[in-house]
């Protein structure tokens, strides 16, 4: 490589770094999307309107373990930690190492654990962290673009890991996730949030007390 090519490459690296730091978490999210567009499924994190509406049905006083699938850059993590009881725990699971590294570097709360892995392994992950079940599971996964079989497997594992009375909270740009949920959850409440890029379907699947 000639010295002028080297100088050009250094400049381009510097510009990329500068743009990323100006964009903050949005820059990291966009980079995660560029690396794995199908797995991330969105170029921009959820809006605060989606966060507030989605979390509004959680009974925080009864929540000891909250699990989140696909936290990305942590749009939901801080609001969950703000509401979570002092002896509660938040475990987030993401397949993208860029996001997990970012979360570990930016969130220092003893109740928070970021796991690099798949939501399909939620039962092992919950057990490995000393719990028998989760009270709530939140999903930002792009169900409609996950590889064949993964969505149904995640919905089944989530139903098994939840305690009776607990809930599976799902937001997505399409209503497809509801089909996966409906195989296991008999009571599903629905909502919609326009103030999000793209507008989102919201679902709360409740695990029967008798289950
Ligand atoms: C649309 S983004 C959600 C971002 C974030 N929750 C928000 O509201 O802005 C989807 C996330 O799911 C993650 N993901 C995709 N497949 C997964 C899987 N099988 N298990 C865990 N995370 C997964 C992606 O890496 C990405 O972070």
What is the structure about, briefly put?
This protein is of the alpha/beta class. It has helices spanning 3-23, 25-35, 37-40, 48-55, 77-83, 97-106, 122-128, 150-161, 176-182; strands at 65-69, 89-94, 112-116, 134-139, 162-172, 187-193, 200-206. It has a seven-stranded mixed sheet with strand order 3-2-1-4-5-7-6, sandwiched between helices.
Keyword list:
22% strand, alpha/beta, 211 residues, single chain, binds S-adenosylmethionine
Describe this structure in words.
A seven-stranded mixed sheet has the order 3-2-1-4-5-7-6, with helices on both faces. It is α/β, with parallel strands linked by helices and 211 residues long. α5 links the parallel β1 and β2. The protein folds into two domains: 35 residues; 169 residues, Rossmann fold (3-Layer(aba) Sandwich). S-adenosylmethionine (SAM) binds next to α3 and β2.
